[in-house]
Amino acid sequence: MVAAVNPDMFVGAVVDRIQNALYQRVHGFKRRQLVVLTKAVVLYARHQKNIRRSIVVLVCIGLLSRLRQMIKLTTSQRKLTDAKSGGPRQKAQLDRQFFENMRRLVGIAIPGLLSKEFGMLVAHTVLLVFRTFLSVVVATLDGQIVSSLVRLRGREFLVGIAKWMGMAVPATLTNSLLGYVQTMLAIRFRQNLTEHVHAKYLANNTYYAVGNLDDRIKNADQLIAVDVAKFASSLAEIYSNLAKPTLDAFVYNVQLARSLGVESLFGIMVIIQASMGMLRVLTPPFGQLVAQEQRLEGDFYFAHSRLIENAEEIALYRGHEAEKRTISRRYMRLVRHVNRVFRLNVFYGMLEDFVVKYFWGAAGLVACAAPVFAERLPGAQRAVQGASTFGDRTRDFITNRRLLLSGSDALGRMMYSYREIVELAGFAERVTELLTVLDDVSSGNYVKARVGKSAEKSLAGSGPDIISQRGQVIESADDVEFIKVPIVSPNGDVLVEQLSFHVTPGRHLLIVGPNGCGKSSMFRILGGLWPVYGGTLRKPSMSQIFYIPQRPYLPIGTLRDQIIYPDNAADMAQKGIVDADLLDVLRVVQLETIVEREGGWDAVKPWRDALSGGDKQRIAMARLFYHRPQYAIMDECTSTVSMDVEKIMYTHATQLGITLLTVSHRQSLWQYHNYILQYDGQGGYMFSKLDPARRIALMEEKQQIEQELALIRDMEARLGELESQSV
Description:
Distance between the termini: 157 Å
Strand order of the largest sheet: 6-7-8-4-9-10
Strand content: 5-15%
Mean pLDDT: 77
Structural class: alpha/beta
Number of helices: 23
Largest sheet: 6 strands, mixed
Low-confidence stretches: 1-8, 73-91, 377-387
């Protein structure tokens, strides 16, 4: 008879058998893993030299491959640029154009090897090297302090603390000097760039041509005042933010290679390169975004400057709502773009912080811990060079961890500097574009939207474009002569196909015609503001031609500066003119009381607002009498003064031997001129002698006839009404 089996005991026995079998298998699997790992460590230790050589060879092959790819990329970009033949390129990229822009701008910011800027750059580099050296010493000292602490060696711990405090003095001094030198570099870079831009912008009327003859730059003031400063600051910062991390990464990697081995460092580098590649793919186009933001900032700034410049006209038209809509549209475009950049920065910042701070940190900790755990493998102690004590392991781990964290921080700053580089590319693109436009404008190459027949020819490609043609300008001794010179606006609008006339000293010319017929355009060509698009122009030097507009320009300065502009006090003294002579000039225009009224010759005021319209025009005439040129261009310059003062001004100008070229519709001025240039408004003109009395008589007769004809028309109309009523 078979005994009954207890179910609980049976289940318990089965579970015990299963657990014993699983334990033996798991324990056997762990032992096999441990044996394999130990054999791997021993094998590595035996062939360590060969492994390191292989790693060096792989690194060299990788560098050569990267260099070959860069050369191929540069060559393909050059071919693509040549094939496009000057077509529009994608802005603010780290390409060949960026390096050309930087070479040009850095050559301006740092004039030479013996310049002050280069000396400051060398001093900055020395400070960077010294700070990196201090970082390595502090990392080693940190490990020694922790090692003495865990080994309970109080004297060594106190000595380490004293050394730590001693290192604080040169470290803080170095950091302060680095900040000072970087700031001074930014100031010097901006000064050199601004002086270079000013030398081009304020020469040969380039400042006028950039805004009136060329369409590529609408806000040169913002580029000079803002973008140049941002580029200079970014350039000074990028050197420190790129050179210091690069130097730190190199020095820390050398130190880590000595303590951890080339293999561990190679593994970390592989992880870092892979993560950097991923970040590079996911990096937004910050260069394009910065350049676009600067353009939108410039448009917004330009809208406000236009509002200030034309405030009176806008107020009279009650156009504040229209201007508000325009400014708001530009501002909202800027806000939307900035918000988009911020959203991209949030995504990229999260990804970058995770990779740099946590992923790289975890890889570094694994690399630091690997030598410590390798010593604990059975059989590995014999292969590894001598087992270390607990204090040594602590010291090495703290030092290596400090170096790895510093190296990770250096690589992180290099990653951040990549974003700063592409932002620098945006600033460099803008400043280089400014310099390119200034060079083109200085050489007479303009880019302007065409209108009228010029636009039709440009689109059809039929025949030579008049805008691209140039006439001949000859400097004469004392006469002004236009020989078949076309009067053409910069956008191609032909006002007069061929203008010819000749003026010699004493032949005062009156210029009349309807609005938009070419009167002011002719003066701009004569004054050198617009190019000569054909024919021949003979004229004296610009110092002998003086222009007086209807709204005179009053510079910032003293009352004396308003009279002698564009001279200064030194030029005035060199000419032998004193304040008493200026007072005599003011007495001619009946404005001598202004000196006492405004507080003396050295009074400084916002003269544009302090003086009335009539006073401004009298100041302009006094300025003419001070300079005494051969020719004076008078563009409605006496419209706000009385006729008796006007008579005094014109009489005195002729007595000084100044030949007058006057634009005015006042009949009272005809008597001071003996020639007339009359435009018909249809592209035609007439140049002839002027007999003021006869012309006035003809005008009066014409007006009388027109009145009589109007009276006859009224009588005929009344006669018709009477006839219709009688019927």
